[in-house]
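Renewal narrative, Specific Aim 1. Our central claim is that a sequence can be written position by position from structural information alone. The example that follows is taken directly from our test logs and has not been curated for this report. It begins with the structure tokens describing the chain, in the order in which they were read.
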């Protein structure tokens, strides 16, 4: 789908780190501010949580290490809240008025892939040794944060996909007791789906996850002009085709925020791919899609607020596919998890039973590997 992109066309890489991450996965404006409901009021938070079917299972929550905060600042990113609300689960939850009655389980996602972006690294003027050290420190910080909340949080491990040290770093990070899977961010890693060597490299890390029996959170969209849905389909065949039992969550409905034409076509490509492989295999693929940052209540760095038509299109597409293909993620701390869920509930016109199915259901592999390794205990109900 040439030239149908990009709803997130960025203004000339004004702020480098924002361009690195796209509209999703970065701090900045508080997306709850345009809310139709006030999340400042404890009674309102309670009412919304009840409407959502109970406390959330959030598969996509970013916690930032001090290096990332410092380095982002160094390239001009402004943070709208105190550092601790980005670096600490406890401070983040307190700042948003959240406790276990609102959120029952969290997957914490590091931003270590940032150090895979050549321009970011160049702007920081750091060498390869420093890059590797910062990736490790970012992963360690997030793993330690998860360990502070052993009954509620697990952590993923991230690494720049194309870095020589990626697999070694993932092995090292996965040794943390509270890490349960890996995060691959193709855009920040500089992956081009039209480049065979990049696809081979990404597929190798996905095969590594399968061999380690740990799930993958995948930011699939590479944000590179000229990529076609045929490239996406070929990537899915190549990278996910061979790993039939690997649990995968594809972030942001396959895009990078918003539900414009490109993201819609990628989501349809993913769903069609799953239909085709499910038809051939003995069991449905455990490949899920998170809808974090897909509906925006206000414009967010190059991505306009979601239109009525986009909300309706998402409702049509999600309902046609079936709620069981989706997992909840909020992309916090950019977004408030209750606000993200409430926006989706309204747009998708979910019944209370459906809301509970979408917002309270864990993808078990992200949580159960802690139990399987005997280092934690069950986090989620059932
Ligand atoms: Zn994210």
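The sequence written for that structure reads:
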């Amino acid at each position: 789908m040439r030239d149908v992109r990009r709803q997130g066309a960025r203004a000339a890489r004004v702020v480098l780190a924002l361009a690195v991450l796209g509209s999703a996965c970065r701090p900045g404006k508080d997306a709850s501010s345009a809310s139709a409901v006030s999340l400042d009021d404890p009674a309102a938070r309670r009412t919304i949580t009840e409407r959502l079917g109970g406390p959330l299972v959030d598969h996509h929550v970013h916690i930032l290490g001090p290096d990332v905060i410092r380095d982002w600042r160094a390239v001009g990113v402004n943070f709208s809240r105190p550092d601790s609300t980005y670096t600490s689960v406890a401070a983040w939850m307190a700042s948003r008025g959240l406790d276990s009655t609102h959120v029952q389980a969290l997957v914490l996602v590091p931003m270590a892939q940032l150090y895979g972006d050549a321009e970011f690294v160049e702007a920081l003027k750091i060498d390869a040794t420093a890059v590797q050290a910062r990736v490790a420190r970012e992963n360690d910080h997030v793993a330690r944060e998860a360990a502070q909340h052993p009954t509620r949080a697990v952590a993923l491990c991230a690494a720049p996909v194309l870095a020589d040290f990626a697999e070694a770093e993932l092995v090292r990070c996965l040794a943390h007791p509270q890490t349960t899977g890996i995060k691959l961010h193709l855009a920040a890693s500089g992956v081009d789906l039209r480049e065979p060597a990049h696809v081979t490299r990404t597929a190798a890390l996905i095969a590594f996850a399968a061999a380690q029996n740990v799930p993958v959170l995948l930011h699939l969209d590479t944000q590179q002009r000229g990529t076609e849905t045929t490239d996406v389909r070929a990537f899915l065949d190549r990278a996910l085709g061979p790993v039939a039992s690997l649990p995968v969550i594809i972030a942001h409905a396959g895009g990078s925020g918003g539900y414009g034409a490109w993201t819609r076509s990628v989501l349809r490509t993913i769903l069609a791919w799953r239909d085709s492989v499910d038809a051939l295999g003995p069991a449905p693929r455990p490949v899920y899609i998170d809808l974090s940052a897909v509906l925006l209540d206000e414009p967010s760095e190059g991505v306009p607020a979601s239109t009525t038509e986009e909300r309706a299109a998402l409702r049509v597409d999600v309902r046609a596919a079936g709620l069981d293909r989706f997992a909840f993620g909020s992309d916090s701390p950019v977004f408030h998890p209750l606000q993200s869920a409430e926006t989706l509930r309204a747009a998708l016109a979910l019944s209370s039973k459906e809301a509970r199915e979408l917002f309270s259901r864990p993808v078990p592999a992200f949580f159960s590997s802690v139990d399987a390794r005997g280092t934690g205990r069950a986090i989620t109900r059932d």
